[in-house]
Amino acid sequence: MSHFSVMTDDFAMDSRTLAGSLEVRLQAIANAGFTQLMVTPEDLVNHPQGPDAAVAAIHASGLRVTGMQTLRDFEGLSGPLHQYKVDEAKSMLSLCHQLGCPLLVVSASTLPRADGDSAALVRNLRQLAMLAIPMNIRIAYQASAQGHTIKTFGQAWDLVWQADMPNLGLCLDALDVLSCAAPQDDLDFLEADKLFLVQLADHIDEARTAVHVFPGEGEHNEALASLLTTLHELGYRGNYNLAVVNDDYRQMPAATVARRARSAALWLGQDVLQRSVPLPNQIRLKRRNAG
């Protein structure tokens, strides 16, 4: 294992970040020294030779699949629309199972017609977790700033805690944390073993919007470093996904963007995590045990 890979074993690169065919993106990610990959259903179903060929390409790359994203607008529905979303969830879980993907990210519903009653939301999340159990897949529930009801990670955590399913946990989005007025108050309530994934990105504010960029390239380096340190102190030893999607990156060669991601992982692994976790000959977080 190279010096670089030791630093980045806990960081995944998101397939959505890069332009090009699946094979081009896989090669760029592997060549940059990453060992993990976050995939999407489109990576499989849009492959010219079909999902089986996509699965074969991913396995041949040597990259470990961190998870698949994202199932959206699942909870709080009823009637035919609910059944429609259940069928979609089953399809995504089936793709995860075919790939050997251990985790499905679920983003809080943004649909105005979604029921905001917590009992209904918990019931739906339990149903989804039950569907995933036979396939040994974990469900990572993530808040959405555009969510109809669940807009913050604290609200998402409340539902995860109420649902109390062994394979249901929280997906924590760094940008969600950065947007909170007092994030430490909610972070203190989290349980590390129910935190299944942390999505990392930063942004650069423009006049009317914010451009998502890799950690280390944006305006919140100090806050991101503090977040990682806090999560370690809480006992988190899981994976981090560099969840950066913007149109600019997708107009650059995949290898160029992957090198920028490498710089982000180096900063996080060497400058941030090594400083907070000074283990002998090791500057990365402890890897989550398999299974």
How many structural units, i.e. domains?
1
Q: Report the strand count.
A: 10
% residues in beta strands: 15-25%
Approximate shape = globular
**Uncertain segments:** 1-7, 277-291
CATH class: Alpha Beta
Estimate percent helicity.
40-55%
Structural class estimated from helices and strands = alpha/beta
- Ends: how far apart? 22 Å
Q: Just name the CATH architecture.
A: Alpha-Beta Barrel
Report what the structure shows.
The protein is of the alpha/beta class and 291 residues long. The protein has a single domain, classed as TIM Barrel, CATH 3.20.20.150. Helix content is 44%, strand content 17%. It has eleven helices and ten strands. The protein has helices at residues 3-8, 22-31, 41-45, 51-61, 79-99, 118-132, 153-163, 174-179, 183-187, 221-234, 254-276; strands at 11-14, 36-39, 64-72, 103-107, 138-142, 168-173, 195-200, 202-205, 210-213, 240-242. It has an eight-stranded parallel β-barrel with strand order 1-2-3-4-5-6-7-10, surrounded by four helices. Helix 2 runs parallel beside helix 4 (51-61) and helix 10 (221-234) packs across helix 11 (254-276).
